[in-house]
């Protein structure tokens, strides 16, 4: 996030309400890509049981050290096994205009490189999703 004009960019992290999560609550959303629609990855405290029990899904969990991400209170994981919807660009821009603190940071360089490798070899993301992610990260 730079300047005064809002723009959502891959790797940016926003603190948003997750109504589609199993337990609706505020979560850290990471912009995965913006075209054709704004899509996100989620940051979780740890992999869910179903992810831990599935080696393919577990391989899509990237550890985010708290020491490299000032918005985290403890080491967490970036779930790259699924891109999800959420706020549209206009909705996110409106939330940012109302409260700039909804933008909380960026993913550090090391996990970003790991994400590219995981996405390129992914068997769970669709070819369209993989192309959309890899074209902007």
How is this fold's topology laid out?
Blueprint: E1 12-18, E2 25-33, E3 39-44, H1 49-52, H2 55-58, E4 61-64, E5 76-84, H3 89-98, E6 103-106, H4 109-120, H5 127-134
Antiparallel strand pairs: 1-2, 1-6, 2-3, 3-5, 4-5
Fold and architecture overview:
This protein is of the alpha+beta class and about 140 residues long. Helices cover about 30% and strands about 30% of the residues. Strand 1 (about 10-20) and strand 2 form a beta hairpin. The longest helix is centred in the C-terminal third of the chain and has 12 residues, at about 110-120. It is globular and about 40 Å long.
Question: Which features does this protein show?
Answer:
single chain, 137 residues, alpha+beta, 6-stranded antiparallel sheet, 5 helices, globular
| Class derived from helix and strand content | alpha+beta
Largest sheet: 6 strands, antiparallel
Helix content class: 25-40%
Count of distinct strands? 6
The run of helices and strands is EEEHHEEHEHH
Beta-strand percent range: 25-35%
> pLDDT average, as an integer?
94
N/C terminus separation: 15 Å
**SS field, number of helical segments:** 5
User: What's the shape?
Assistant: globular
Strands side by side in the biggest sheet:
4-5-3-2-1-6
User: Regions with pLDDT < 50 over 5+ consecutive residues?
Assistant: none
Rg on CA atoms, Å:
14 Å
